[in-house]
Amino acid sequence: MLGEGILKGLAETAKNFAGSFVSAERMTTVQYPEERIAPVEAARVFPFLVYDGADWEAGMRCVACQICEKECPPKCIYIEKSKDKKPDALGKPQFYPAKFDIDVSVCMSCQICVEVCPFEAIKMDNEFELATDDRFGGLLQDRKQLAKSNEYYHTIHPTEAAEVDARLAAEKTKAAADAAAKAARPPAQAATPAPAQKPAGGGE
Question: What is the DSSP string of the chain?
């Protein structure tokens, strides 16, 4: 029927309006900023970089593989790889981002950067109050601004963070077991060269 969707919408509005006088559950309007609704765990706004430990620079999980930069649809991520290496969470020497910028004025919050990251280094924040009167530099966040601790990650996405920690711990345990097994393995002995054979029918 023509206009059926409009009628359904108006009926829902009327139901909430009438119900708001008798039930707090029908109070759909939030008086922001005085009142705020806690974001759901699956909320995603803009990306941030996860680091482990107390030092954001030393504990950053990102190894500057640049996959997120290449896969980002609006091309809002800019990374410069370091010239040297530092140990990662597994103790393996890795490159790190000498520069990591995200232009949040361009970011479309698609979460593709999170999905393609093989190191669990970039996640989605739920912080949305980023308005500024600086339309250029104020919306370009560098790696120090983007860096947030694993504890913060657990605060906003506890279920997801616990799964990530369990997976990283399993990988670290496996890497340690492989290293121990390799160290315990006896060194390979050099093969003894076979004696030269005399040509058939030849004399001394």
Answer: -TTHHHHHHHHHHHHHHHHTTT-GGG-----TTTS-PPPPTT---SEEEEE-SS-TTTSB------HHHHH-TT--EEEEE-SS-EE-TTS-EE--EEEEEEETTT-----HHHHH-TTS-EEE--------S-SSGGGEE-HHHHEEEHHHHHHH-HHHHHHHHHHHHHHHHHHHHHHHHHHHSPPPPPPPPPPPPPPTT---
CATH classification at residue 152: 3.30.70.3270
Number of domain units in the chain: 1
The answer to whether 107 and 74 have CB atoms below 8 angstroms apart is yes
Residue 183 lies in a domain: no
Share of the chain above pLDDT 90, in %: 50
Domain that holds residue 80: 47-176
107-164 pLDDT tens trace: 999 999 999 999 999 999 999 888 888 877 888 999 999 999 999 999 999 999 999 9
In a domain, 24, yes or no: no
